[in-house]
Structure formats: C-alpha cells, structure tokens
Design a protein that fits this description.
Distance between the termini: 9 Å
Number of strands: 43
Structural class: alpha+beta
Shape: elongated
Radius of gyration: 35 Å
Largest sheet: 9 strands, mixed
Number of helices: 16
Strand content: 25-35%
Strand order of the largest sheet: 4-26-16-3-13-7-8-12-11
C-alpha cells in the first residue's frame, strides 16, 4: 500500500530513505548479563596451537560435522569476525588503548599508554562498566595479570599513564571523592594522587579478582596467604606464602577496604572456592576483592608446578559469576582478561635462549624456563630450565586456561535462571607474531638438522617406478608415527590438560615473527613486541543470536564496534557508538507570531565545538500535533519526517561534523492550530545531548469557520472571491488533508492530477465561507508526484504532493 511522504512546496521535493533505529531492550523482563573476554596478545595461532594439542585433525575431530571437531569453547561461539586493533596515535597498540576501545567504544580510541583518558581533552572517558553500574547492574573485573594492569584498569579507572598502578588501585576501591581521599588518609595529595574521576562517582565494583597485591600494600609489608580457615599456606619450597607490598606510601588499602568499605578479601584458591555466597545480595554493599600474587598470577604451567594455592582464571571466573548473579536483580557486566598469553609472547619463550652476557639468541624447541625468568632472574643459568617443559607447553596451557573460563561463561547460555546472556571474545592486539611452525621430530626424519617436522611426507610407489600403476602406496605415516601432534590428557584440580605423550613425542614447535632480530628493540630488552595483526572476534547469546550476530555481515570490524552492541543489549542510556562531542544547537523563527493555516520558517543550527570529528550526529525535532513541515533545505545531511511504515521520526541526520563546523536546516512549518507553538530540537552524538527551543506566539487570527472579514465588500465591488488551498499530510489511513480557504460559500471540485496531466481522482466539495477541511485518500495512487487542485467558480488553486 502506498503512502504520502513529503510535500512539494515552491518546487521543493523532500525525499530519501531512513534506517530505523534498533529498538532498545526494555529494562523490564529477565536479567541481562554481558561477559567481555579479552585475550591479551591473543592472535589466531595460539588458538590453533591449543586446538591441535587437543587432537584437531585426528579421527573424530577431522571434519566439520564430527562431534568433536570444535574442541575449544571459543570454537563453539557461533558468530565470528575479524577486527583491527590500532590506537589513535599508532598502528600498533598497547593494551591500554586496545582495551579502552572495548570499554568505551569510539571514545576509547585513544593514545598508547593511556587508561580511559582522552589525550586531546585531558578528561576521563566513561566506560560501559561504569554506565552499567549506575543503571543497576552488578559489575566485575577478573584477570590473570595484576588487577592494576592496563586491560582491567581501562574499564574502571582513569589516568594518563598505565604506569600509575598505585593510583589505579585506589581508584578501584573508592566510589566517591570522600572515600578516595580517606583511602590515602594524611598522605592524600590532590596533585600527586589526582581528584577522583567524576565518571566513577557512585560506581562501586562488586568483584575484583587477579594479581597485583603489591599496589595495595605499603612497601616493606607482607600479608600471609591463608586458606578458608585463616591457616597460612606454604609455597612449593615449604615456606610461608606471602604477598609483599610496593606502594610508595604508608597505606594498606586491603585493610582499609575490609574495615571501611565492606570488602570480603581472599588471597588463596581455597579461600576463593569455599566462600559463603549468601553474604552477597542486591541490598547490601558487600564486594569481593581477591589478590593472589604480588604481581601477575602465575602462568598456568607454573601454577601447576609451583603455586597450586593460586586459583586458575577459570576458578576466578566461576566465582565471579556466582557473586555477580547474587549482587543484582537486573544482571551483570563482567570483563575477563587472559592476560599472560601476551607476557609469554613478549618473552619469546620457546624460541630464544639468553647467553651469559644477556644477549638473545634464537634456538629451536629446547626445554625452557618460566617466561618470568627473562625479566626477573639470570636466564643464562641453565639450571633454571625446566626439564620436559617447552615453550609450547606454556602457550597451550595459558590459552586453555582462558578457554576454560569462556566455557564457564558459556554455561550461562543454557541457564534459564541466569536470564539472557551475551558473550564476546576478542583480543586487545596480537603479540610476538607467533606461529605454529611444526612438530618436534626426535629422529630428524626430514634430514635437515632442525628436528622440526612440517609437511606430511610424500607417498611413494611400492613398485619403485613413478610411472607404474602402484601395487601399494606407502603414505609414510605409520613407520614415523604420523603427522599430527601427540599429546595425552591429565587431571589437575578437576580440569583436564594436555601434555606431550613423552620426552620425544611430536610436540608443537612455535616461533615468533617479532623477535630479537626484527622488532627494533635493543639488547637487553623485550625479545618480542606487539604487532598490528588483525584479531579474531567471537560472539554468542541465548536470544537467538539477535545481538551476537551483529558482528557478522559487516566486513572487517574496528575494535570500537563491540561496545555499542553490548550497551544496546543491556539497554543502557549511552550507546557508546560515537565520540561524546561538544555540540551546540540553536533554533530561530522567521517571525514572532503565527496563526492557524499559516506557515513560519525555522532555522536550526548545529555546531561541533569539539576538537574531534563528531559522528552519527542526529537532530530530533518532534513537533506538536496538527503541525506539518511544508519544506526543508539543509546545508548538510538529510532531513526525514517519516521512517519505514509511516513511522513519524522528524529527524535531521547530519552524519559527521568536523571540529568547528556548523550546519543549518531551514524548515517551513504549517500549523492547523490557533495556539502558541514551542518548537524543540535535540541533537545527539554518542552520550552528548544538547537541546534548543523557540516559541512562536499566536497572532490575531480570524475564526476558521466563519466568513472572512472583507468578503462582502469584495463581492459588492465586483472582485472575484479568493480561494486558497493547502495540503497537509496525514500518514495514518493513507490520507492527505486538504484545506480550502474561501471568502464565500460555494460548490467546488477537488481534483488530484498526475504530473502527466491525467486526472486520477475527482470529488465534489462544499466549501463554506472560511476554511473547509477535506480528506483525500492516496492509498491507491501509484508512486510519483501529484497536484491537488480545487476548482471553485472557475478559479483554481493548487498544491503538490508526492507519494511513494
């Protein structure tokens, strides 16, 4: 069915389509949960390595329809894409702006090293965690790094440099300027310690789990690691496990948080896994703080060897979910970082050896030391190498710990009691240029001295002739053990892990494109660096894929594209789709008074007063009932009165406004009312919203149903009576309203004529003295332009319409 969309007045045609805004999720209904998983430095190759160690490509996991083909929880995420990772000031990002893009959308496209801090405006950037908490959601951060490290800090703190970890620790625990100052006590110095960020006011984080106790405890102090009963835990050497402080002041933030901010503190796996969940409810202010190492939590490989009293990332995520489920009746937002994938890649573990003079040398597949040794000990000491442990073992276990944590989140997709859940998995960047180069080959089958097996051996003809039809083809896999990785599974703390089947087994061999010869670092220094490689994005939800699927079908994504989807899923007031531009709006009227059946010109001016380009700028002009636009002209963008299905939108879509740029919209507005009209415009770009209005008063208006003054005089003097016609669109019922203003009562013909001159509709009209209103249906008109003509006493008046 056709509908009228715009008026033609003075030769101006308003046209154009409109993509309707997606409907926001209502606050009512089931709980809504979002988990954003970020694998730090997590490129494609680490995921491939973990899957190969679990048996990818072998019987039962060889084809896409094999039940065991998708071996990782990541593989089971239904929707996939690739994304860029560059920062605002560099083609290679570090974790700080890399993760801020996920935390704040386009506002998070900032400079390297800065934590949710706009380098151009020198002001905090609001994050989705902060917005979610203010709107009633529980919020949490979980990481295998220091909790004060860049990625988690991006979601809930605001500093100009990621190195300010002592400040970050204090910002985490406070939810007001008063609490922030009290954390420092007499040591508080606004210059040194900052003012509490305004975007954090009223935001208390419900769950904080990771490492980094050194930034919560004063230098020289220690805190024992204790189990659920308060009994001190011993480390692998049989000594008391302790957390040592490194703050540059006298403040014990852990003790203060326990005593004054209602935090439950734990620092061991036993204490974490055996908590009483009943202490966390929506109606209290109880929060959970868990710090399990001075610095980063142990690599999963090291945790299993030396620090089993620390929780795995999977352990932390499971408990975080249980606490957050209890903290809000609305749902929760949780960020999870698998942070030590990046650290292993920085260390190039599995592909480097460090000589006595602290120089690096590239080696192939030898037993390795912990990646931390590269920075914390003398790796020239061969005794530090761990027999039977290789660089690929660190990589595989770190990826699988991250993957197991994703499995814990995916369990919510099938938990009806948890409500609706959206999961994203991405990376802040790739690190090391890591690749899987082959399999360890103890027998050097390929005879090249590398002990690395790559391509499968070519088949040979048993008859010894290349041309002869073979009696049997020797495929070459039986006598050399095959061409897939050879791992076996073992149990540690209730979770299954792979390890090479033996000391000479076909273990995975890894290498790094960013290494000591290629990455530009001096020696000694960091062996591997970040790269600008695109990263994998996975998503899933339990609402039919309505939100997770939005990463597909769009081509390459930017790392700012996920936050608006998460925000819309949660129904937040800020959609994080744009910079929070500093916009100005002005609206002026061409005349101070207006009467019914008259028009007035309005000039709306939008100005970008920011130093960045404002994107997705829209101006809404919802007018009062019985008021219509007659025409519109714009210096930029498109004005649309109606969207699909005849939905009234009254929107000026400006697109982009450069810094300092202004754009104008001039509207000619027609009213049916003898009332003062207030015209209000609202412009938005991201979370920024600016309004402007102007009022046009009612003038001295003649009655709309009586003979106009001067009509009798006009007739007596022999002048022909004046007849005017106006056309007013009414989308409902597919009608246009025709207004006939006649000096005398008279019979008239109302005609609708196509632009080719053909009459497509004719009806009789009894025009009274004054204004007569008639409705004309355009439901059956074909698309095109039409002219409405009123023929009264041989005098014709016309207005044009267009229908589509």
């Amino acid at each position: 069915m056709l509908r009228p969309i715009y008026l033609l007045t003075a030769g101006l045609l308003l046209a154009g389509g409109y993509a309707a805004d997606a409907q926001r999720v209502s606050d009512a209904g089931p709980k809504k949960n979002v988990i954003m998983y970020i694998g730090d430095g997590f490129g494609i190759a680490p995921k491939t390595a973990a899957r190969l160690a679990l048996g990818q490509g072998q019987p039962g996991s060889r084809y896409g329809d094999d039940p065991n083909f998708q071996l990782l929880a990541i593989d089971k995420l239904k929707y996939n894409a690739m994304a860029t990772t560059h920062s605002y000031n560099g083609f290679i990002t570090d974790s700080a702006p890399g993760a801020t893009c996920y935390a704040a959308g386009q506002n998070g496209k900032i400079d390297n090293d800065q934590i949710a801090w706009d380098p151009l405006t020198q002001s905090p950037v609001e994050t989705i965690l902060e917005a979610a908490k203010r709107e009633g959601y529980a919020v949490g951060l979980v990481t295998s790094t220091r909790i004060t490290h860049a990625t988690p800090a991006d979601f809930a703190t605001h500093v100009w440099s990621r190195s300010l970890e002592n400040v970050i620790a204090a910002q985490y625990l406070a939810s007001s300027q008063e609490e922030y100052a009290a954390l420092y006590g007499a040591d508080y110095d606004t210059t040194k310690h900052w003012i509490f960020p305004s975007v954090r006011e009223g935001v208390k984080i419900d769950v904080l789990l990771g490492g980094g106790a050194r930034h919560f405890l004063p230098r020289g102090s220690n805190r024992d690691v204790v189990d659920r009963n308060g009994v001190v835990v011993n480390d692998a050497r049989g000594e008391r496990a302790r957390l040592a402080g490194r703050r540059d002041d006298s403040r014990d933030l852990i003790a203060y948080a326990e005593q004054n901010l209602n935090y439950k503190f734990v620092n061991s796996r036993d204490g974490l896994m055996n908590m009483d969940y009943s202490q966390f409810t929506p109606n209290d202010n109880r929060s959970l703080l868990g710090l399990f190492n001075d610095s980063h939590t142990s690599y999963e490989q090291d945790r299993q060897l030396f620090a089993p009293y620390e929780p795995s990332l999977e352990d932390m995520v499971k408990i975080a979910i249980e606490v957050l489920k209890r903290k809000s009746d609305k749902g929760f937002f949780l960020m999870v970082e698998g942070g030590r994938i990046d650290h292993m890649e920085h260390a190039n573990v599995g592909a480097i050896k460090i000589t006595q003079d602290r120089k690096f040398a590239i080696v192939v597949d030898t037993p390795t030391y912990s990646p931390d040794v590269v920075y914390s000990a003398n790796p020239a000491d061969e005794a530090l190498r761990i027999p039977g442990i290789y660089g690929s073992d660190y990589l595989i276990k770190e990826v699988l710990d991250f993957d197991h944590s994703i499995a814990a989140g995916r369990a919510l997709l099938n938990d009806a009691s948890a409500g609706e859940t959206l999961i994203f998995q991405a990376a802040d960047h790739e690190c090391g240029g890591l690749t899987v180069t082959g399999l360890h080959d103890e027998d050097d089958f390929q005879g090249n001295g590398t002990q690395v097996r790559t391509y499968a051996e070519r088949p040979s003809n048993s008859l010894g002739s290349a041309n002869a039809k073979p009696g049997r083809i020797d495929r070459g896999d039986d006598e050399i053990g095959g061409w897939f990785a050879d791992y076996v599974m073992y149990d540690f703390q209730g979770t299954m892990w792979p390890r090479p089947a033996g000391p000479t087994a076909r273990r995975l061999v890894i290498a790094y494109g960013s290494n000591i010869l290629t990455n530009g670092n001096s020696n000694p220094g960091t062996p591997g660096n970040h790269t600008p490689d695109d990263i994998y994005v996975g998503a899933d939800d339990n609402v039919g894929g309505r939100f997770a699927s939005r990463i597909t079908g769009r081509g390459l994504l930017d790392n700012t594209d996920l936050t608006p989807i998460m925000s819309e899923f949660l129904g937040l007031s800020d959609d994080f789709s744009n910079f929070d531009a500093n916009l100005a709006l002005d609206i002026q009227s061409s005349k101070p008074t207006i009467c019914a059946f008259e028009s007035v010109s309005l000039t709306v001016t939008a100005t970008n007063k920011d130093i960045r380009t404002a994107r997705n700028v829209k101006v809404r002009l919802p007018f009062t009932d019985r008021t219509a636009y007659m025409s519109a002209t714009t210096s930029a963008g498109v004005f649309r009165q109606y969207g699909p299905g005849g939905v009234l939108i009254e929107e000026w879509d400006l697109g982009e406004l450069e810094p300092g740029e202004s754009a104008t919209l001039t509207l000619t507005v027609f009213t049916l009312r003898n009332e003062a009209l207030t015209f209000t415009a609202t412009t938005t770009a991201g979370a920024d919203e600016v309004g402007a209005s102007t009022t046009v008063e009612t003038g001295t208006c003649r009655p709309t149903s009586a003979r106009s003054e001067g009509a009798e005089e006009s007739l007596e003097s022999g002048h022909a009576p004046t007849t005017r016609v106006s056309v007013y669109p009414t989308i409902t019922n597919h009608e246009v309203t025709v207004l006939v203003d006649s000096e005398i009562a008279q019979d008239a013909d109302l005609l609708v004529v196509g632009l080719n001159g053909a009459i497509v509709l004719r009806q009789s009209l009894q025009a009274s003295a004054g204004v007569t209103v008639a409705a004309v249906s355009v439901a059956d008109l074909t698309a095109g332009g039409y002219v409405v003509i009123v023929d009264a006493g041989g005098k014709r008046s016309a207005q044009a319409i267009v229908v589509e």
